[in-house]
Write a structure and sequence with these properties.
Number of helices: 12
Structural class: alpha/beta
CATH architecture of the largest domain: 3-Layer(aba) Sandwich
CATH superfamily of the largest domain: NAD(P)-binding Rossmann-like Domain
Order of helices and strands: HEHEHEHEHEHEEHEHHHHH
Helix content: 40-55%
Largest sheet: 8 strands, mixed
Shape: elongated
Radius of gyration: 24 Å
Bound molecules: NADP nicotinamide-adenine-dinucleotide phosphate
């Protein structure tokens, strides 16, 4: 498998080249419907299929073609974009097909795990289907704008052949390499950061809220610390990459004292301590193991080997 490469598409130019290229969208939930509408608005002859056909009504009114079966949908053109609930749903729709899919490209924009994406790639290859996996990293209102981010990995030739059509989704399309699981892995990594950050913000609002502070009063201070986090991340990444954790500007013993305050103050207010306790425990273990003078990024070693 190749190392990841990043390929940024200049969406407007590429999209202009793609007008007239047909695309099929399978799945018209919140995201699939948005994808179909975006392709349609960009001038692509768009064929759609959805289990609940009525979800296509407005798209058909605006020029989309409603296929009356999955088979009819996939044979409408060379590029099939799938965006359904999960990987099992994707397979339940495509596996019963005969050889209708052979020689066509399936871009699966259904969120999935790396393992499922690789298994789907093996299934697709066995059917003579060209498969590119994709992960949409923005909510539906952002799709079609310059802020769109879609990650792709898998068959490079599918990305190259159809990138002009995919660029109609707007913003940035990053090709991460031939490993079909890479896009899903990056998706999960981004979600890991996102949900931990949202949970931390909500915990903090509960903690300060117990003393009568409104979330909106605390908000500017939370945003300040998020911008500090943004500046700190490159240093963490470099330290983890180097496997070197010099505690020149900060150290774990000092950070442990701070997290003990967060846990104690939460407890005193009857606030759930699960989240700060995770960080406190990691820092305490690092100190117990003799790493109190190292910098925070050292805890990645414990995360890699939780039993050590
Ligand atoms: N919504 C977002 O903001 C967003 C953002 C990024 C990524 N995504 C990803 O996009 C994918 C779709 O999300 P969504 O928001 O569009 O979900 P959704 O609104 O719940 O739509 C689910 C889709 O899957 C179809 N489906 C479910 N079970 C099915 C089955 N057994 N057979 C056939 N079709 C079935 C539904 O058909 P029916 O209409 O007939 O129920 C519908 O088209 C997910 O992987 C999600 O993680 C979504």
């Amino acid at each position: 498998m190749n190392p990841p490469t990043t390929d940024l598409l200049a969406a407007p130019d590429a999209a202009n080249d793609a007008r007239g290229r047909p695309v099929t969208v399978i799945g018209l939930g919140a995201m699939g419907h948005t994808l179909a509408r975006t392709f349609l608005a960009a001038g692509h002859p768009t064929t759609v299929w959805n289990r609940t056909a009525s979800r296509a009504d407005d798209l058909v009114a605006d020029g989309a073609t409603l296929a009356d079966s999955v088979s009819a949908a996939v044979t409408a053109g060379p590029l099939i974009v799938v965006c359904v609930l999960d990987n099992d749903t994707t397979l339940s729709l495509l596996d019963p097909l005969g050889d209708e899919l052979a020689g066509r490209a399936v871009v699966n924009l259904t969120s999935t795990t790396p393992e499922d994406a690789r298994a789907f790639h093996t299934w697709a290859t066995s059917r003579g289907v060209d498969h590119l996996d994709g992960a949409i990293m923005v909510p539906t209102p952002v799709v079609g704008t310059d802020d769109t981010l879609v990650l792709y990995s898998g068959a490079r030739e599918v990305f190259d052949t159809h990138h002009a059509t995919l660029a109609s989704l707007g913003g940035t399309a990053d090709y991460l390499g031939t490993d079909p699981g890479r896009a899903g892995l990056f998706d999960l990594g981004m979600l890991d950061v996102f949900f931990a950050g949202m949970t931390a913000f909500l915990h903090a609002t509960a903690m300060v809220g117990a003393d009568g502070i409104a979330p909106t009063t605390f908000l500017p201070y939370a945003r300040t610390i998020v911008s500090v986090l943004d500046e700190v991340l490159p240093g963490l990444a470099a330290e983890v990459e180097a496997g070197s954790y010099p505690g020149d500007a900060d150290n774990i013993a000092m950070e442990l004292a701070a997290m003990e305050h967060v846990v104690r103050v939460s407890e005193a207010r009857g606030i759930d301590t699960t989240l700060p306790e995770v960080t406190r425990r990691l820092l305490a273990t690092a100190v117990e193991q003799g790493h109190g003078r190292d910098t925070f990024s050292r805890i990645v070693e414990q995360l890699r080997q939780p039993s050590a």
